[in-house]
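Cross-posting from the chemistry board since nobody answered there.

I work mostly on the small-molecule side, so proteins are not my area. We synthesized zinc ion and want a rough idea of how it might sit in this target. Sequence and SMILES are below. Is it possible to get a predicted 3D structure of the two together?
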Amino acid sequence: MKIPRQYADLQCWLKSIIPSDNMEDYLLMDYMNSGAVSNATGTVQSSDVLHCELFTKDHVYTISAKAPIVGQYVCQSCGTKLEVSFIDIPILHKVQCDKCRKKEAILTHTTGGYLGCIVSERKPRAGESWTRGNDLADGDFCEETWLAILRDIVKYEMVKIASKIVRKNIELSEDMPRVGADSATE
Ligand SMILES: [Zn+2]
Protein backbone atom coordinates (compact mmCIF):
# COMPACT_ATOMS: atom_id res chain seq x y z
CA MET A 1 0.00 0.00 0.00
CA LYS A 2 1.23 3.50 -0.84
CA ILE A 3 1.25 6.10 1.91
CA PRO A 4 -1.00 9.02 0.87
CA ARG A 5 0.89 12.19 -0.11
CA GLN A 6 -0.36 14.24 2.83
CA TYR A 7 1.46 11.76 5.10
CA ALA A 8 4.89 12.26 3.47
CA ASP A 9 6.34 13.47 6.80
CA LEU A 10 5.13 10.36 8.62
CA GLN A 11 6.60 8.20 5.85
CA CYS A 12 10.02 9.84 6.44
CA TRP A 13 9.77 9.34 10.19
CA LEU A 14 8.80 5.66 9.81
CA LYS A 15 11.57 5.08 7.24
CA SER A 16 14.13 6.27 9.79
CA ILE A 17 13.32 3.39 12.17
CA ILE A 18 12.37 0.55 9.81
CA PRO A 19 15.34 -1.77 9.12
CA SER A 20 14.44 -2.46 5.48
CA ASP A 21 14.03 -0.49 2.25
CA ASN A 22 10.73 -2.27 1.87
CA MET A 23 8.64 -0.75 4.66
CA GLU A 24 5.90 -3.33 4.14
CA ASP A 25 8.23 -5.99 5.60
CA TYR A 26 7.66 -4.36 8.99
CA LEU A 27 4.56 -2.21 8.69
CA LEU A 28 0.85 -2.85 8.35
CA MET A 29 -1.21 0.09 7.14
CA ASP A 30 -4.86 0.91 7.03
CA TYR A 31 -6.08 4.08 5.34
CA MET A 32 -9.56 5.54 5.54
CA ASN A 33 -10.62 8.57 3.56
CA SER A 34 -14.10 9.79 2.92
CA GLY A 35 -12.80 12.97 1.29
CA ALA A 36 -12.94 16.64 2.21
CA VAL A 37 -16.34 17.77 3.45
CA SER A 38 -17.77 21.16 4.37
CA ASN A 39 -19.61 21.32 7.68
CA ALA A 40 -22.59 23.58 8.56
CA THR A 41 -20.33 26.60 9.17
CA GLY A 42 -18.64 26.15 5.80
CA THR A 43 -15.37 25.00 7.36
CA VAL A 44 -13.67 22.37 5.24
CA GLN A 45 -12.78 19.23 7.16
CA SER A 46 -10.89 16.20 6.03
CA SER A 47 -11.82 12.83 7.46
CA ASP A 48 -8.77 10.91 6.34
CA VAL A 49 -7.01 8.80 8.97
CA LEU A 50 -3.98 6.54 8.59
CA HIS A 51 -3.31 3.68 11.01
CA CYS A 52 0.10 1.94 11.09
CA GLU A 53 1.02 -1.14 13.08
CA LEU A 54 4.59 -1.89 14.15
CA PHE A 55 5.55 -5.10 15.97
CA THR A 56 8.14 -6.06 18.52
CA LYS A 57 8.56 -9.47 20.13
CA ASP A 58 5.86 -8.87 22.75
CA HIS A 59 3.98 -5.76 21.66
CA VAL A 60 2.08 -4.18 18.80
CA TYR A 61 2.24 -0.39 18.46
CA THR A 62 -0.65 1.26 16.62
CA ILE A 63 0.11 4.74 15.33
CA SER A 64 -2.91 6.82 14.35
CA ALA A 65 -2.33 9.84 12.17
CA LYS A 66 -4.53 12.51 10.72
CA ALA A 67 -2.82 14.91 8.35
CA PRO A 68 -3.22 18.61 9.22
CA ILE A 69 -5.82 20.60 7.29
CA VAL A 70 -4.27 24.05 7.49
CA GLY A 71 -0.72 25.33 8.01
CA GLN A 72 0.13 28.74 9.43
CA TYR A 73 3.21 30.49 8.03
CA VAL A 74 5.23 33.58 8.87
CA CYS A 75 7.42 35.21 6.22
CA GLN A 76 11.00 35.49 7.48
CA SER A 77 11.57 38.43 5.15
CA CYS A 78 8.58 40.75 5.73
CA GLY A 79 6.70 39.18 8.66
CA THR A 80 3.47 38.55 6.73
CA LYS A 81 1.32 35.75 8.14
CA LEU A 82 -0.47 33.39 5.76
CA GLU A 83 -2.36 30.10 5.75
CA VAL A 84 -2.23 27.18 3.32
CA SER A 85 -4.74 24.35 3.00
CA PHE A 86 -3.10 20.93 3.05
CA ILE A 87 -5.97 18.79 1.86
CA ASP A 88 -4.58 15.99 -0.34
CA ILE A 89 -1.15 17.64 -0.66
CA PRO A 90 2.07 17.02 1.29
CA ILE A 91 2.84 19.39 4.15
CA LEU A 92 4.93 22.24 2.79
CA HIS A 93 7.53 23.51 5.24
CA LYS A 94 8.37 26.65 3.22
CA VAL A 95 6.10 28.55 0.82
CA GLN A 96 6.11 31.75 -1.20
CA CYS A 97 5.01 34.89 0.65
CA ASP A 98 1.85 36.57 -0.73
CA LYS A 99 3.24 40.04 -0.10
CA CYS A 100 6.97 40.13 -0.93
CA ARG A 101 6.85 37.08 -3.28
CA LYS A 102 9.95 35.56 -1.67
CA LYS A 103 9.91 31.87 -0.81
CA GLU A 104 10.64 32.72 2.81
CA ALA A 105 7.39 31.88 4.60
CA ILE A 106 8.15 29.20 7.22
CA LEU A 107 5.59 26.80 8.69
CA THR A 108 5.04 27.74 12.34
CA HIS A 109 2.17 25.46 13.28
CA THR A 110 -0.66 23.39 11.87
CA THR A 111 -4.29 22.78 12.79
CA GLY A 112 -6.61 19.82 12.29
CA GLY A 113 -3.88 17.17 12.49
CA TYR A 114 -3.22 14.46 15.03
CA LEU A 115 -0.57 11.88 15.82
CA GLY A 116 -0.90 9.30 18.58
CA CYS A 117 0.12 5.80 19.54
CA ILE A 118 -1.29 2.96 21.61
CA VAL A 119 0.47 -0.23 22.63
CA SER A 120 -1.05 -3.67 23.13
CA GLU A 121 0.47 -6.93 24.25
CA ARG A 122 0.52 -9.48 21.45
CA LYS A 123 -0.89 -12.28 23.59
CA PRO A 124 -3.11 -12.39 26.69
CA ARG A 125 -1.55 -12.97 30.09
CA ALA A 126 -2.27 -16.34 31.77
CA GLY A 127 -5.87 -16.45 32.98
CA GLU A 128 -6.92 -13.38 30.98
CA SER A 129 -8.87 -13.48 27.73
CA TRP A 130 -7.96 -9.92 26.68
CA THR A 131 -4.68 -8.29 25.77
CA ARG A 132 -3.50 -5.44 27.93
CA GLY A 133 -2.71 -2.05 26.44
CA ASN A 134 -1.71 1.51 27.19
CA ASP A 135 -1.91 4.95 25.64
CA LEU A 136 1.43 6.42 24.65
CA ALA A 137 2.24 10.01 23.67
CA ASP A 138 -0.03 11.96 21.34
CA GLY A 139 -0.45 15.50 20.05
CA ASP A 140 -0.21 17.58 16.89
CA PHE A 141 0.94 15.98 13.66
CA CYS A 142 4.57 17.11 13.95
CA GLU A 143 8.08 15.79 14.53
CA GLU A 144 7.97 16.74 18.22
CA THR A 145 5.04 14.36 18.79
CA TRP A 146 6.77 11.66 16.73
CA LEU A 147 9.88 11.90 18.95
CA ALA A 148 7.72 11.73 22.10
CA ILE A 149 6.12 8.54 20.73
CA LEU A 150 9.55 7.05 19.97
CA ARG A 151 10.73 7.78 23.52
CA ASP A 152 7.62 6.07 24.90
CA ILE A 153 8.18 3.02 22.68
CA VAL A 154 11.81 2.64 23.81
CA LYS A 155 10.69 3.00 27.46
CA TYR A 156 8.00 0.36 26.92
CA GLU A 157 10.51 -2.12 25.50
CA MET A 158 12.88 -1.81 28.49
CA VAL A 159 12.98 -4.86 30.77
CA LYS A 160 13.89 -4.92 34.46
CA ILE A 161 17.07 -6.60 35.61
CA ALA A 162 16.16 -9.82 37.45
CA SER A 163 16.20 -9.11 41.19
CA LYS A 164 17.77 -12.54 41.91
CA ILE A 165 20.97 -11.51 40.12
CA VAL A 166 21.33 -8.43 42.30
CA ARG A 167 20.73 -10.47 45.50
CA LYS A 168 23.22 -13.17 44.50
CA ASN A 169 25.97 -10.58 44.00
CA ILE A 170 25.41 -9.19 47.49
CA GLU A 171 25.53 -12.64 49.11
CA LEU A 172 28.72 -13.58 47.28
CA SER A 173 30.51 -10.38 48.20
CA GLU A 174 31.40 -11.67 51.72
CA ASP A 175 33.06 -15.05 52.43
CA MET A 176 30.78 -17.30 50.41
CA PRO A 177 32.41 -19.43 47.72
CA ARG A 178 31.67 -18.25 44.20
CA VAL A 179 29.23 -20.23 42.12
CA GLY A 180 31.26 -22.33 39.70
CA ALA A 181 34.43 -22.25 41.83
CA ASP A 182 33.78 -25.79 43.21
CA SER A 183 32.90 -27.32 39.87
CA ALA A 184 36.01 -25.81 38.31
CA THR A 185 38.31 -27.63 40.76
CA GLU A 186 36.55 -31.00 40.40
ZN1 LIG B 1 7.18 38.29 2.76
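Reply from a structural biologist on the board:
Welcome over. Reading the output above for you: The radius of gyration is 25 Å. Residues 75, 77-78, 80, 97, 99-100, 102, 104 surround zinc ion (CB under 6 Å). Happy to explain the C-alpha coordinate format if needed.
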